[in-house]
Specification:
Low-confidence stretches: 321-327
Strand content: under 5%
Structural class: mainly alpha
Number of helices: 10
Helix content: over 70%
Mean pLDDT: 78
Radius of gyration: 39 Å
Number of strands: 0
Order of helices and strands: HHHHHHHHHH
């Protein structure tokens, strides 16, 4: 039993290292996939442009339709192409995931320490440190709204591509309709064949774009959900700290010099009172009502002597609490 108990932390540490290494491998592979997707998009855009140029060189009347296909192909190329937008969304998603894990880890660690040792002064320092480290809620809410807008835009792009593909399901009818839109009312077989090739190329491009818009939509949707979880975790941890930080002693107990100062005040007051001419009469009265008199004198002594010291300490404590941004 003792041997298993000693091995348990080592096994847990090894499992954690393996998890970190596996996540690093996944991130590296994901980055490689993004690079390959972007390179494939750039190469495919060049191939489509060459194929369209070959068609329009023979049939210039098809140039307007070819330009539309060319623009579709360019959606997957360049710095703002879909593959690079997907890579950026996944990278941002990973950053938010890492931040959420860190928030949850710190929150759980603080809860365990408070359960074990209570709200000590060192725990107060840790709480104040994490309070300043936590992301600002309005900034997180702004990011949630931004990702919701990005998700809506990606969904609209995907719907548009789906509708365009749906229009090309029946190739013969699509060919006739495309020629009529270009003003070719009596096409020959060669024109029909050329338009059919152009539409086939357009369909292939649309299918590739649809795959990218689907991936982009999934990334933004996952990001939106993760942002909401992150915002909730930050709010819960911040509220947890605000509920407890004022109960943690944030300054040292009265120092020895403060006690000496209090004793000096009490001595001065005693000397001043004993030197007055009415002291003898007060003493004789006190002998008749000793308990009440003693209580009253002690109370007055403490009230007068501690007043200045308490006021100064109260001002210092107020300054410290305000510096913690919890009042």
């Amino acid at each position: 039993y003792e041997a298993r108990r000693e091995l348990l932390p080592l096994r847990s540490e090894r499992a954690q290292r393996r998890l970190v290494q596996a996540q690093a491998n996944v991130n590296r592979l994901q980055a490689r996939v993004s690079e390959l997707r972007a390179a494939a998009g750039d190469a495919r855009a060049l191939e489509v442009d060459e194929a369209l140029a070959a068609i329009t060189s023979v049939y210039p009347v098809m140039e307007p339709r070819a330009e539309g296909v060319r623009q579709l192909a360019n959606l997957r190329s360049g710095e703002n192409g879909l593959p690079r937008r997907i890579a950026a969304a996944q990278e941002s998603l990973l950053e938010s995931k890492t931040l959420l894990e860190e928030v949850n880890s710190r929150f759980a660690a603080v809860q365990r320490r408070i359960s074990a040792g209570g709200l000590t002064e060192s725990m107060g320092i840790l709480l104040r440190r994490d309070y300043g480290w936590l992301p600002v809620a309005p900034v997180l809410r702004t990011k949630v709204e931004e990702h919701e807008e990005m998700l809506s835009g990606a969904q609209l792009e995907h719907i548009t591509i789906e509708e365009a593909l749906s229009a090309l399901k029946r190739m013969q009818q699509a060919t006739t309709r495309a020629l009529e839109e270009l003003g070719v009312t009596d096409p020959d077989d060669e024109q029909r064949q050329a338009m059919r090739e152009l539409l086939t190329l357009e369909k292939q491009v649309l299918e590739s774009v649809r795959a990218d818009t689907r991936a982009l939509t999934s990334a933004f949707y996952a990001h939106k959900e993760l942002d909401e979880r992150l915002l909730q975790a930050v709010d819960e941890y911040r509220w947890f700290i605000e509920e407890r930080i004022l109960w943690v002693r944030s300054s040292a107990l009265p120092a020895s010099e403060d006690l000496v100062e209090l004793a000096d005040h009490l001595g001065e007051f005693r000397n001043a009172v004993s030197s007055t001419p009415w002291m003898d009469e007060l003493t004789r009265s006190a002998q008749r009502r000793r308990p009440l008199f003693v209580s009253l004198v002690v109370f007055l002594l403490l009230l007068i002597s501690v007043r200045r010291l308490a006021a100064r300490k109260r001002a210092e404590m107020g300054s410290l609490v305000r510096s913690y941004k919890t009042d």
